[in-house]
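Deliverable D4.2, example record:
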Amino acid sequence: MGQWGWVGATIRNGERNSTLTHANPGRIEAVVLDWAGTVVDFGSCAPVRAFVAAFADLGVEITDAHAREPMGRAKIDHIRDILAIPEVSQRWQEKFGSPPGESEVQALYDRFLPLQKQVILQHAELIPGARTAVADLRRRGIKIGSTTGYTRELMEALMPVAKTAGYDPDVLVCPSDISEGRPAPWWIQENARQLGVKTMSAIVKVDDTVTGIVAGRNAGVWTIGISKTGNLVGLDQRSFEALASWRKEDLVTVAARALREAGSHLVIESVETLPAAIQIIESWLAAGERP
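Output generated by the structure prediction step:
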């Protein structure tokens, strides 16, 4: 498997635009990184463990696939989306005799938060190459923003661990900081505001979820999807490395296809190769391209 996996451009639905006349910034000023599956937690496993356990506490079984399907959303919205999955909704009604409402969403959320806090530090390790990649971007003068579906309280537990390991973004935007989560563009726009970047085409959103990529497109920024280490493959590093080469290739290819279809301008296997991907986007900027 190559270091890059699938790499391709999707600009204005596949068509390059060379007729733009406004000023070309020529360089990327900021990247906005997701957390789980992108920079920490190879396979984005921590949220899945907590969602499955929260539903089990109420006697409703969900699979890892159910838990992963809405990944990238604010966690309370994520719970609503899981409950809307037909198979889960049916199991809920069989168990309780009626469809779930907002009180049930809140009950699940109240169970989810302490479970997530317990498990989050078990999956706090930086993804290989993340620290070096971010250091490379900083040397180029690129600012580092971040978004997450985790609450501020959960991030107060995770961020010191990440900082000790060498990752400390300039900005963190959590669900409580904005009125609506992904795929709305507000998390990214709030990063732009706090980072002081006025040109959206000078920003790159890096995410391992379809929802995160759609949010980036909605915000008018460049988007880079993460295939191998993220939610769409959904395996921790040890489990992934134990697979046969052909199986690894298949999983990464399927993940890359989903990210590309969501609108990723580039897809890379891991944040490790992010600096090289940024150079490609800067070459497009130099040629007058825009996201």
